[in-house]
Amino acid sequence: MLTALKRLKRRRQRLEKFERLGKLRFGEEKPISNKTQSVHRISVYHQGRIRHGLARERKPMPELFCLSQNHDAVVTFLSELRHKLVTSGGRFDRLRLSGGALRSARNKLPMFDEYIDFASMREITPAAALVLASEYDRIKTVFNAPNWLRAINIENWEPNVLTTLDDLGFLPMLGVDRPRTTIANRDGVYVVPFLAGTKVLGDKIDGFIRTLGNFAVGRGLVDGEALLNRSRVYDGLGEAIQNVEDHAYPPGTIFPYPMVKKWWMTGAVEPGKKRFNLMVYDQGISIPARLPRWDLFADFKAAFLATVGRDFDPESLDKDGETIAEAVQVGRSSTGKSWHGKGLPLMREIVDNSAGGTLHILSRCGEYTYTAGKRPVARSFTVPIAGTLVEWDLYL
Amino acid sequence: MSTINIASDFSRTPGGRYISDGPFSGELFRERLLVPALRGALSSKGKVVVVLDGTRGYLSSFLEESFGGLVREHGFTKHQLDRILELRAIDSYYETYRNIALRSIADARAERSLAH
Questions:
Q1: Domain definitions of chain B by residue range
Q2: How far apart are CA A265 and CA A279, in angstroms?
Q3: What is the mean pLDDT of chain A?
Q4: Are A390 and A280 a contacting pair, CB within 8 Å?
Q5: CB-based contact B65:B19 (threshold 8 Å)
Q6: Fewer Cβ in 10 A, N or C end of chain A?
Q7: Confidence of residue B116 (pLDDT cuts 50, 70, 90)
Q8: Is the pLDDT of residue B52 over 70?
Q9: Using CA atoms, how far apart are residues A116 and A55, in angstroms rounded to an integer?
């Protein structure tokens, strides 16, 4: 008892000392930029334990973490996150080399200069969650550090955000290793754990479809897997992954950050509405940037000039939406030519094989949306996403 | 006549185009099963039947590399293949894949003059 009291007292003294030091170094509750910066207490969850610690700077996440409805804020955040993860990964690597990581891990009081505040998120979509997860997954692969990241203030996270991230399989990357016994229901929507890979892996796609089908079957949609088969979902997911293999990470390309040649995939099912949401993401060079290497580039350039009224410039971002739309159209209409480049139109066919739905492609600044029975819609944002996200929202 | 059932003789989950793209690729299927069977059929004046049914689906790149690659990489002609290769889709669901495979053969251009 006495020892525990002593330990508590010592911890309080250390906290006070760190706070005093923080005030000396950073000033009293003085904001450094537009974010909340002052030394404050945090809880750090790792491997079943919550420890208290201190942090200086809190980087809040956008409240609405959705790539469609809050695109610019989310993509800007993701870009900053990538930079932060790379720099802190580098720091971790240097510490590890010098043995400092071990000392840091033994430290009774976790201290952070900065942390990402997931508690500020009110809502997150599965697609945005997949892109977020890919950043963490990539950085863990790059720095080969499975136990490096931590979940901060997890008790304050919005329950629906926590559920989505838990279902997606994101939390173990932050050291939250609570075994998942049930899949939580979020307004009738179930998100399946994400998959990542580096090749066209038919058995993984098959397993993924089975998982989605089983979720649906277990919740009243008895023919869930048959419906997915009928829509040729296997082919669409495979085409998306083959596109990643063929074009996303061309040899010799220099990326601004350490890169892993991977794809990420997840899905959600809403059995009550016979609705399936599937998505594949890569962090590659994007569709507009890879078009000059395309076999059908000459046809594409002519079509782009005719439709948009100016020459195609792969460096120009302002017509990325139209660029994707034109690439899909050229791939569809070209016959008797190379089969390279048929992937995009085949991805669109899944929607036509369903009772209804939408294909949504987000690549660099462009967004392409195809809804069954309607004209495709293209638009361009000002802030580019890293890579390409292909998302199907299918009613089967 | 020899029969290759892709689902039972190769894989129920066919993969991508090249062997470097991952397991059960179109290139692997062509090199391991299709070309030896077709060469045998040529010498014995027989026929090879490829059954497409039973798989989870196909990627267009798998079909193109498997069947278009016969013309492109091995110098088979469309005329020859019409004679010695039969693509069978028992379930109408697989008819789409049969059409893609046939179109791949028709569209492919020989990169080698003759290889048999």
A1: 2-115
A2: 6
A3: 84
A4: yes
A5: no
A6: N
A7: very low
A8: yes
A9: 11
- Closest by CA to A263, choosing from A251, A245, A246, is A245
Among residues A384, A232, A393, the alpha carbon closest in space to that of A318 is found at A384
Chain B neighbors of A345, CB-CB under 8 A? none
Hey, are the CB atoms on A200 and B25 less than 8 Å from each other? yes
Q: Cα–Cα distance between A176 and A340 in angstroms, integer?
A: 42
Among candidates B17, B24, B56 on the partner chain, residue whose Cβ is nearest the Cβ of A242: B17
pLDDT at A360 over 80: yes
Predicted TM-score of the model (pTM): 0.86
pLDDT at A30: 40
Tell me how far the alpha carbon of residue A296 is from its chain's centroid: 30
Q: What is the full DSSP assignment across chain B? A: -EEEEIIIII-SS---SSGGG-SS-HHHHIIIIIHHHHHHHHHHT--EEEE-TTSS---HHHHIIIIIHHHHHH---HHHHHHHEEEE-SSGGGHHHHHHHHHHHHH---SSS---
Contacts of B12 in chain A (CB under 8 A): 206
Q: Residue A201 is encoded by which pair of tokens?
A: 């892996």
Q: Name the residue among B13, B57, B60 with its Cβ closest to that of A203.
A: B13
What percentage of chain B reaches a pLDDT higher than 70?
94
Residue A243 has pLDDT above 80, yes or no: yes
Mean pLDDT, rounded, for A313-338? 84
ipTM: 0.92
Q: Minimum mean pLDDT among A137-141, A330-334, A343-347, B49-53: which range?
A: A330-334
pLDDT of A36 strictly over 70: no
Q: Which of A237, A230, A227 is nearest to A202 (CA)?
A: A237
| Tokens describing residue A362 | 């987000």
Q: Burial, A59: exposed, middle or buried (Cβ in 10 Å; 0-12, 13-18, 19+)?
A: middle
Closest Cβ opposite residue B13 in set A206, A229, A246: A206
